[in-house]
Design goal:
The structure is a single chain. With about 170 residues, this protein is an alpha+beta fold. It contains 4 helices and 12 strands; from the N terminus they run βββαββββαβαβββαβ. The protein has a 5-stranded mixed β-sheet. A hairpin with a 4-residue loop joins strand 5 and strand 6. It starts with a strand and ends in a 6-residue tail after the last strand. About 5% of the residues have low confidence.
């Protein structure tokens, strides 16, 4: 599996889904630091930075009315491991960009709050990557189908008021 744009390679990428992202923070963090009302307000907040991203300090947000905001944000805490930053996010140490499908339970039970929900981060493509375009072994086909089915299930109970957390591509699209 590969997340994000694929570099040129001899590998074959089969698109599975587009994963939605959200900015979120704990209620304790927001009580201490205030709730950002616009993307520019993020400059005055503690952003948890995922250093393994291609451009870790760059944030591109698009409002539901079409306006766009491109920000370069500095973070007091940076790491290359998402679970570490997710734990710091829950502990109230900053705002973190996360996949909606991963953070849904914390948003649903109030441990985290979605920040600027009317502003959307780019969706990230998820690919199944293989070495050949020709027929795949049955176990590989079954694994790809199982992942696609899991992601389709993510749109059931994991749907938020804002819509799907994952946009799954039909089998024929891959």
């Amino acid at each position: 599996l590969h997340l994000g744009p694929l570099p040129d390679s001899q590998l074959v990428a089969r698109p599975l889904a587009w994963l939605k992202q959200v900015l979120c923070a704990s209620p304790a963090y927001l009580a201490r630091m205030g709730y950002p009302l616009s993307p520019d307000d993020l400059h005055h907040h503690h952003i948890l930075i995922m250093t393994s991203r291609a451009q870790p300090n760059q944030f591109e947000l698009k409002h539901q009315d079409g306006r766009q905001s491109h920000l370069t944000l500095q973070g007091r805490i940076q790491a290359n491991e998402s679970q570490t930053l997710a734990n710091l996010n829950l502990a109230g140490l900053g705002i973190f960009q996360r996949f909606a499908v991963d953070v849904h339970p914390e948003l649903a039970d109030g441990r985290l709050v979605s920040i600027l929900p009317e502003w959307h981060l780019p969706e990230i493509p998820l690919y199944a990557v293989t070495t050949t375009r020709d027929s795949l072994p049955a176990k590989v086909r079954y694994a790809i189908d199982a992942i696609r089915n899991y992601l389709q299930g993510a749109n059931g109970p994991l749907q938020s008021a804002g819509g799907q957390t994952v946009r799954v591509l039909a089998k024929d699209d891959s």
